[in-house]
Amino acid sequence: xxxxxxxxxxxxxxxxxxxxxxxxxxxxxxxxxxxxxxxxxxxxxxxxxxxxxxxxxxxxxxxxxxxxxxxxxxxxxxxxxxxxxxxxxxxxxxxxxxxxxxxxxxxxxxxxxxxxxxxxxxxxxxxxxxxxxxxxxxxxxxxxxxxxxxxxxxxxxxxxxxxxxxxxxxxxxxxxxxxxxxxxxxxxxxxxxxxxxxxxx
Length: 201
Fold this sequence. Notes:
Elements: H1 2-12, E1 15-16, H2 17-28, H3 36-48, E2 52-55, E3 78-81, H4 83-93, H5 106-112, H6 119-147, H7 153-184
Antiparallel strand pairs: 1-3, 2-3
């Protein structure tokens, strides 16, 4: 997931490590915290694999001409995706297996880069995610019906809240799927306009 997100962000533009970490936090939506201790080892591995390259400015270029030795700060390393990195990103974008839509946070990351994903792949991922969430919903309903009489009202409300959340995700996914299918067929979802009032003159 981290490799995919890094490649997706660098596919948009080169970034230095601090900016990349900020953008990753937005893409991951708070699902996990990315520390420099996990980011930089991943960047080193990806650079060793030829997926990204670095551009580090010469240290003296950042110093005034009259600066004394050793007072300058180290320049920011800029990371850029390579041709091999773009190829790897497009390979990952095309994957539609369970890892693309099951729980674990990868679905949200895939969704963040849907603009780089072919429509038929987007549909397969969305439909796979909906099936996964529908299975979760059925499991919650079964559990609730079996344990309803043994639960106190607070636990019962918690389970109902979870079921409502899953219901909302199923509806949201269905709307996304309908929109993708409408665009694929050349139709646009109807947008209701203002209601016309009858003439009274």
